[in-house]
Amino acid sequence: MPLSCATLWSYGSGMRPWALRAALVFAFAFVLRIAPLALPFDFRGPDTPSYLEPAESLAAGQGFRARDGRPSAVRPPGYPAFAAAVYLVCGGPSDLGLRIAQALLGALAAVAVAATLRGCGPRWSLAGGLLSALDPVAIGQAPFLLREALLLFLVAALLWARVRLGARARFLATCSLGAALVLTHQLYLLLAPSLCAAELWNLRRAHRRRLAGEALRWGAVLLVCASALFLWARRNERVLGRFSLTASSNAAPARELWLTSEYSNAWLSGDRATGFQHLAFAEERRLVEAVGVEEAKRVLLARAWANWRDHPLRSLGRLLRINLWYWLEVPGAVRLAEHPRLAVVRWGLLAFHWPRLVAAFAGVLWLAGGRGPRALRATALGTLAFFALAPSLLYPVPRYLGPACPLLDVLALLGLRTSVLRRSAAA
User: Fold this and answer.
1) Per-residue pLDDT band at 334 (split at 50, 70, 90)
2) Which of 50, 74, 79, 283 has its CA 20 to 30 A from that of 378?
3) Rounded to 10 degrees, what is the CA torsion of 338, 342, 343, 346?
4) Alpha helix (H) ranges present in 35-166?
5) Is this model's pTM higher than 0.85 or not?
6) Most confident listed range (173-187, 201-215, 383-397)
């Protein structure tokens, strides 16, 4: 006999209301994150082997090594370690197992959004969880064998921990999640200072002793995060002979600083019609092959400085334009825009993404006006400052905004809630 929604609800009636809502959000989000596997799309990127090769080596007990057996330092260890743990559970390398694990992380992230919003009331908390579960941009991160799915979950967990946990548990969770974030992507080292600045700004009128205590706690968080990266760089020094966070063959971040000053596209940075990104990367490869990585960095930095020195307004305009598309484009849109069968999907995603950005902006204004719980205000605005400022000079790729989906969903729900409550009050 088929089970109706009412029957399923009656089976769950013995659960606590919050647990039942969380279970529904989790199940809904998980199913939606598994669904994209049916699409005619290769959810692997050019960077995928550089993550999965050391993951396979770790799972086999051979250390953090590339396919050729040499120690690898191309990528930080966070995502490869996560993939290796999945491989151990699956009994060997498994793309399907990794995608299922990432779908589970995405579902947990939706529950974390609902939990972050519990202070808004049960209906709004459930609405936030369902919004996150339905978020097509977040859904699109789950099947990709790249680190964005893990980063998305860690950001959602950090939002929940900073808003809902008590002081001691919040501190410990911030330290551990912050370390996990920086070991997955080193740029997230700037997240802790952003959160610290927002927290101290919120407490600017507090007693000096309280301000000093908060600054001391954030100093400890930053020390933990920096120590995690330091230990990884020392490991690289031991196996590769130089103190470095990465040992890639490209000229980043000098390449990114040069690219932002050269950005001539009217829209999407990876648009194949103009060939801008392809030609720029080809020029970088030519330089690296001709003079080596370090000299190529110096050449590209000199070119970037020359652009800013000789044409400051033009360079600033290009920087602002590429950052605008970083927010307005859909993460992964380059692949969708060039796909012969799925190009239309991008436009459907924009129909969600742009209204969500408008609602999120309303949520930002509400929080910036001093409303809402202090912890939510400081955490949301601090995290937003990180996503807006940290990659701004470094040729921000739309895919890098994917981990901000939980934050955008929280802000959008706050903006929608404010609008509804105002309309109700006016009526």
Assistant:
1) low
2) 79
3) -120
4) 48-59, 78-90, 95-116, 122-134, 136-141, 148-164
5) yes
6) 173-187
State the Cα angle at 338 between 334 and 340, rounded to 5°.
Answer: 145
* Spatial CA neighbour of 192 closest among 218, 166, 227: 218
Pairwise CA distance, residues 271 & 290, whole Å: 27
Question: Would you mind telling me the total number of residues written for the chain in this entry?
Answer: 427
User: Which residues pair with residue 65 across a beta bridge?
Assistant: 71
Q: Which residues of 303-330 are buried (b: 16+ CB within 10 A; e: fewer)?
A: bbeebbeeeeeebeebbebbbebbbbbb
Give per-residue burial for 154-173: e unless 16+ CB within 10 Å, then b: bbbbbbbbbbbeeeeebbeb
Residues 120/372, Cβ–Cβ less than 8 Å: no
Look at residue 58 in the predicted model and tell me its pLDDT: 95
The rounded distance, in Å, linking the Cα atoms of 205 and 235 is: 43
Sign of the Cα pseudo-torsion (241, 246, 187, 233, in order): negative
DSSP-derived secondary structure for 331-375: TTHHHHHH-TTTHHHHHHHHHHHHHHHHHHHHHHHHHHTT-S-HH
CB 321 within 8 A of CB 263: yes
Do the Cβ atoms of 138 and 132 come closer than 8 Å?
Answer: yes
Q: Evaluate whether 408 touches 188 at the Cβ level (below 8 Å).
A: no
Place of tokens 């994150």: 33
Kindly report, residue by residue over 27-72, the tens digit of the pLDDT. Answer: 999 999 999 998 877 888 888 999 999 999 999 999 999 888 888 8
Q: How far apart are CA 320 and CA 395, in angstroms?
A: 11
Cis peptide before 403 (omega within 30 of 0): no
Rounded-to-integer distance, Cα 113 and Cα 163, Å: 11
Measured N-to-C along each axis, helices 167-182 and 208-240 cross at an angle, to the nearest 10 degrees, of 30
182 vs 171: CA distance, rounded Å: 17
With beta carbons less than 8 A apart as the criterion, state whether 165 and 173 touch.
Answer: yes
